[in-house]
Specification:
341 residues, alpha/beta, Rossmann fold, UDP-galactose 4-epimerase, domain 1, seven-stranded parallel beta sheet, three-stranded mixed beta sheet, 17% strand, globular, binds NADP nicotinamide-adenine-dinucleotide phosphate
């Protein structure tokens, strides 16, 4: 019999991209936590068993985790209760079977950001986080974004009842395609770039945070899914280390916010949704209104994903040029969805 996977986030952008691949693999039997009844019914049609519930249904999560060889959590990087419930289920399974199950958790490179507001990083204050450099990863402050949950996951591994792995995707981009999107199950859009595009449309002008001199990393969605599948297979085969040496930064290039903003502003201007073809800065009022007062798009994120390429044979091909083309396509797609709304 194949291994059992409990998947959280099956209807999401990242989780949906992974499930798309899993459906083609006969090695795994999948149970997903889903909160939407219609989507649960549709998933059953694809051979996925479902548990109706939310991330606050901690007993359900613990029970399902205890029943699975592998937990794949792509629903929420910051939900402490759900992560604790997964770990409690992992522990229960270990106590019953004597075998440490696998937990692959989704965090994010938001853990590495500085406090910049559209300015370039200060090399003195922002280290280069490298997932193959244990010392620099261990030096990440406990107070960093996402880190409270990641530390729980790492602690479970240290205690020995679970083999844990953490994937830290950077800005994931691209429009997810596949049968789960076509069936109206999976979300096809990411978070960061679409948020900037939607805010620009509401402002009537393509815009960025400050001068947009800040830099982030990016990874294309289908290529990120490939990283997860490779990691899953390697974890099952036991060929890669886990715990603190099992953290994988998902990135394949760097972008500067101002170049990104130039790409979506051009597309919005051509569609008559930006007054000018050059991006302006969001005002403080815009940031309050569109981003809840948090100028996180203006931060810098400096990191390097070494492990996946070196140890998993992950070979993404979509780099910086494809990213900018993808931004223009995302702008066109957001405009189409607004016209259809
Ligand atoms: N996208 C990125 O660029 C990126 C980069 C780094 C890290 N991340 C992190 O990765 C995680 C997933 O991101 P994503 O882009 O895949 O987001 P998404 O498309 O919004 O997917 C989230 C998934 O989790 C489910 N979910 C969320 N809250 C839930 C709750 N309270 N109860 C039950 N299900 C819940 C959603 O279910 P519904 O379909 O019912 O809403 C959906 O299946 C997030 O924590 C995000 O911060 C994302």
């Amino acid at each position: 019999m194949g291994k059992t996977i409990f998947l959280l986030g099956a209807t999401g952008y990242i989780g949906g991209s992974i499930l798309e691949h899993l459906l083609d693999l006969s090695d795994y039997s999948i149970t997903a936590l889903v909160r939407n009844t219609e989507k649960a019914k549709k998933l059953e049609g694809f051979g996925v068993k479902t548990i109706l519930g939310s991330l606050d249904d901690l007993d359900k999560i613990q029970r399902a985790a205890a029943a699975a060889d592998i937990v794949l959590h792509c629903a929420h990087a910051d939900h402490v209760g759900a992560a604790k419930a997964v770990l409690a289920g992992n522990k229960e399974r270990f106590q019953t079977t004597g075998v440490a199950p696998i937990y692959i958790h989704t965090s994010g490179t938001g853990a590495f950001i500085d406090g910049a507001v559209g300015t370039r990083f200060d090399p003195e204050s922002l280290p280069l986080y490298d997932d193959s450099d244990r010392a620099v990863m261990d030096a990440l402050p406990d107070t960093a974004f996402h880190r409270n949950v990641d530390l729980l996951v790492l602690e479970g591994d240290t205690e020995g009842y679970v083999r844990s792995y953490i994937v830290l995707p950077s800005t994931v981009w691209g429009i997810l395609t596949g049968k789960l999107v076509d069936a109206g199950i999976a979300n096809s859009h990411s978070i960061q770039i679409p948020a900037a595009i939607k805010a620009s449309i509401r402002k009537g002008q393509g815009a960025m945070i400050g001068l947009g001199e800040n830099e982030w990393l990016h990874v294309e969605i289908h290529e990120l899914a490939d990283l997860y599948i490779r990691l899953l297979n390697a974890a099952v085969a036991g060929t890669v280390p886990h715990g603190r040496d099992g953290q994988y930064i998902g990135e394949n290039g760097v972008y500067r916010l101002k170049d990104t903003a130039a790409a979506y502003t051009r597309a919005l201007h051509a569609a008559g949704r930006s007054r000018t073809a050059e991006p302006e800065s969001f005002t403080k009022g815009d940031i309050d209104r569109f981003f809840g007062g948090r100028p996180w798009l203006g931060t810098n994120c400096r990191a390097k994903g070494v492990r996946a390429k070196r140890d998993l044979g992950w070979a993404p091909t979509k780099g910086d040029a494809e990213f900018l083309t993808g931004v223009e396509k995302e702008a066109a797609s957001v405009l189409t969805s607004l016209r259809g709304a």
